[in-house]
Amino acid sequence: MTSVPTIRWGIIGTGWISTEVVKDLILERPDAKAVHVIQAIGCSSLSKGQAFAKSTIPHLSPTVYGSYAECYADPKVDLIYIGTPHAFHKDNCLEAIQHGKHILCEKAFTLNAREAREVFAAAKAKGVFIMEAMWTRFFPLMQTLQRLLHDEKIIGDILRVFADFGLNMDVKSLGPESRLKNKALGAGSLLDVGIYSLTWGLLCLDRNIADKAEKPKVVSLLSLEEGVDMTSSFLLLYPSTGRQGILTSTMSVKSDETFARIEGSKGTIFVEGPGTSIPSRFKYVPNNKDEKEKVFEFEKPGAGYYYEADAVAMDIQAGRTENAVMPWAETIRVMEIMDDIRYTNGALFPQDAE
């Protein structure tokens, strides 16, 4: 039998998302497919990094650095997790790649598709593994749903998908330096939460991903405040089938717990959970009243970030530089669609002009 891989992680960024990921990495799980070791933490200041380690993993003793560069250079670190704001992802990735580190980088992977291509080209040249951390794609719920939709055709021919991700972030009360308001930091609902609505549309409307998937026609509208999209609405139209995705995101209102609906010729599936990024169940409602409804529940310890982490560890052990669920071409496809939505509606970042 192949031994369970062990990955020594270097954590870059000490915000909320890094906190949640680290907690999940060290959870004891009977079905764990990898061993995850928090080897080092890189932060903008030593005191901030030490405070993060004390509050998040007080029973562990990772090496804490007062800079990102020291974490990249640590020979005991196998993989760098990047949990910084979107605008820093490109440089963080390129610096880690220069040190020969494997990488798991938070979504949105970069600010635009051009930056993503630059990062992937560098990773290819160096021969390191890198993946966008779109964790929802790795949930057993998502894997089961795709099988039922595309292989077993539980709802027949797929007709429409509705998906929404809304959070009340009280943006108006934030200062101009906030990543939610500062365009130079990638502000806006689309890259922050709309990427999840887009992901649900893409995965439920087409069985294929990356360069094998049909290219949909995109129509979009954004509500801008000082150039930042507060609310986004976009349609995906698949010319070959007429399937449509009606997808939305906002930073002003919290989504309903039933955040997605998938309609087909034989029935409808309703997806529920505390957030669009973290589904917990879905219900199949058949058109045929003689057929019973069916609920699919998916319990898990923690939040579920370890699903993608295990996948990364197994890829690295096997010598792969890409993951089949979230390959580089899929990240570029998603970034290109979001670029199109932003450019069409005038939601530009300073980096877009570079």
TrEMBL record:
* Domain Gfo/Idh/MocA-like oxidoreductase N-terminal as annotated: residue spans: 7-131
Q: Which Gene3D superfamilies match?
A: Dihydrodipicolinate Reductase, domain 2, NAD(P)-binding Rossmann-like Domain
Which reactions appear under catalytic activity for this entry?
D-xylose + NADP(+) = D-xylono-1,5-lactone + NADPH + H(+)
Q: What is its EC number?
A: 1.1.1.179
Does the keyword field hold Oxidoreductase? yes
Provide this UniProt record's keywords sorted from A to Z.
Answer: Oxidoreductase
Domain GFO/IDH/MocA-like oxidoreductase span(s) in chain numbering: 144-269
GO MF terms listed in the record are: D-xylose 1-dehydrogenase (NADP+) activity; nucleotide binding
The domain of life for this entry's organism is: Eukaryota
The family classification in the record reads: Belongs to the Gfo/Idh/MocA family.
* Full protein name: D-xylose 1-dehydrogenase (NADP(+), D-xylono-1,5-lactone-forming)
Q: Which organism is it from?
A: Pseudogymnoascus verrucosus
